[in-house]
Amino acid sequence: MDEMRCNIGIYNLQMKAMGGGEKLTLVLAEHLSSTHNVSLFCAEPLDIPSLEQFFGVDLSRVTVTSLNSVGPLVRVAEKMFGGLALSLHHYRQLKKTNLDIFINNSYASRLRCPASQGIFMCMFPHTAQHLGQNGIRGIRSTFVSWIERRLNESPGKAIDSYLKVVAISQYSADWLRQMWKRGSQIIYPPCDDMGPPATKGNIILNVGRFIAGADDDQRHHKGQEILLETFSRMTDLHREGWELHFAGSVGSDESSERFANMLRNKAEGFPVFFHFNVRRDEMQDLYRRAAVYWHATGYGVDVNRYPAKHEHFGIATVEAMSAGAVPAVYSSGGQKEIVTNGVDGFWWDDIDTLVSQTRRLVNEPALRCELSNRAILSSKRFRREAFGARVDQLIEELLSERTAGL
Q: What is the extent of the structural domain holding 174?
């Protein structure tokens, strides 16, 4: 069939989070804008040059639109009804844009598809129960569920309005089927090649957003405090000149800033360094010089009760591997799809195992070199080119189905 230029809208309300979901959104927008008219819909004005620099994207062909702000009544309703009010507010605005294809890449979105053809890119399936089950929160959650039934606007109902559902990992796809009874296609997020490796230093690296812990089961637990406590006890590594480096963006809320400062205070006196909101070139330099990569998201959290707190995929792990850092990751979620235990890195289930694996990598440089080379090769499966090819295939499927239906 002839190539068809479409009007495509991409929706993400969490752009200021500067995380993996936001990277996926921007790489997706950049890629599709080479062959289609692309609009990015967000909640507030964006600093486009900063986003381009931080994520290494070109948004010159993308139209960025801030959706109309909500009034006081909608804000009150938003707090009461757990996302329904804002979704309805945005649905009315987006319905007027006459998009050919709408791609919802906003985490925990309740928005029905405002176009004739839609793709829901699911980081992880969400439920009304993320409000909590104790005390006032439990009452509120029950009330929201009742409103959903009356409005026929449950998360599952919203997802049914999209022709295609994409999961970012097999882990997310499995939970999506369990929670929403909906099948999906898997498209792994785009990951950058951060190599080639530089001369490796005695550096253990962890990359992740610094976000405060909460009872809300939709929040990640990145585990920086656990890793800091673990490294602080490994005094033999300190004597041998090993350092632990943390890098990532800090949440804009006060509680996340307090969390970051608390970590920094706890690290005083130890060979531990923090790199908050670093530039892309600084981040690449850290990846290239790191010998070992630690990842702890989900540790200590019941995966059956709070599956969303485990790693949905793990872009940072892939990017560390691409620069030759050997990963030692908590064996949960999407991490097990990235790292093959004993082949290109290690899985760990408890802190003692993490400590023993790390000491082995420190004391056996030949093993570390072998796993490093394999990690580089493994990372190539998740490059931006592979992501773009899968997205093109998905769009072609939609266009073919539309043509067949005419």
A: 7-190+383-405
